[in-house]
Amino acid sequence: GFVGMIAPARPEAKEAIRVAKNAGVRTIMITGDHKTTATAIAKDLGILNEGQEVISGEELSQMSQEELEKNVEKYSVYARVAPEHKVNIVKAWKSKNKIVAMTGDGVNDAPALKTADIGCAMGITGTDVAKNAATMILTDDNFATIIQSIKQGRGIFDNIQKDVQFLLSSNIGEVLAIFLASIIALINPPWGFGVPLLPIHLLWINLITDALPAFAIGLEPVEDDIMDRKPREKDEGFFANGLMVKVIWQGVMVGLLTLVSYSIGQYFSNHEYAMTMAFITMSGAELCHAFNVKSHHSVFNKQVFNNKYLWGATALGLALQLAIIFTPLSHLFSLVPLDPSHFAIAALLAFSVIPIVEISKRFNKR
User: How far apart are the first and last CA of the chain?
Assistant: First the structure.
């Protein structure tokens, strides 16, 4: 008679490995099982694909470290391995300038956990030695949780970049508007150009229309396609992939729109009138620009409503903005009443940051 036995993989493991593969994260199996068993399980899970190989501990022992480093990318499954083999495998992958995460639960796994960039010990079955050697502890011993943590980590980094993009582009816009207005005033005094924004205006903008949306952007839910993106390079800078270019041109956009609004006000009236228009445009543009940076995709989709904090911050910022324009508080900010048509112009210039950035997103996508 025959008796067949199997320790099946968790149901969610197969899907987690597929998601990891889409995200550019390669899963390698290191097991004490027989080569045939390991091959069958690896194929079922999607770890072992066409063109990839299985190697046993015995074969590894006959291979030099240099040879392993040269061929390590061919192997997806390591069977019947010894503890020292695990360390060698981690070192071989690190020699390829890859970020290596290693899981383990036993005393024998501790050296490899320590060698890896990220050692992940099992919280339930893991020994104290393994836990102390690891960078993090997986409390539920579930591989799918690691993939979920990668998703959350990418989301956090993504939101940090969005916050920096929003705050820097807004501040560049403020500086540029004042700088260009000063240059125009020096070159052509008859135009009557002055400083388009007072210090109290800049303080208000930084405290209300910058700070409130920035906090909300930091709480932006993880984008649906974040696990379809490839990992960042190990030595990749924070402003890589065109982020600095975005910051600069979007800052220039906000600054120029503010200056256009100020110029219109200066043409139809006086400095205080123009300053009021510039203030409305600058503060409104930054509230609108927060929606531009909340996602790498078009703002005109169902995800636009997925961040209640951003909508709350925008509503509060808009309410406070209207309060200082249409109440006696306007005297504290040296603001004057505007003709409805000029108020509409200032507001439209502020809103125009959305279609401008939308065109840029479409262009970049193509």
Answer: 63
Measured from the Cβ of residue 131, the count of other Cβ atoms closer than 10 Å reads: 17
Could you give the CA distance from residue 178 to residue 197 in angstroms, rounded to a whole number? Answer: 7
Largest interatomic CA distance in the chain: 104
Residue type at 322? Answer: L
Q: Is 251 exposed, middle or buried (0-12, 13-18, 19+ CB in 10 A)?
A: buried
**pTM, rounded to two decimals:** 0.86
How far apart, in whole angstroms, are the C-alpha atoms of residue 34 and residue 338? 81
What are the tens digits of pLDDT across the range 330-343? 898 999 999 999 99
Side by side, the strands of the sheet bearing 75-79 are 29-30, 75-79, 53-56
Give burial (CB, 10 Å; 0-12/13-18/19+) of 317.
buried
Residues in contact with 353: Cβ distance below 8 Å, sequence separation at least 6, in sequence order: 250, 253, 254, 257, 285, 288, 289, 292
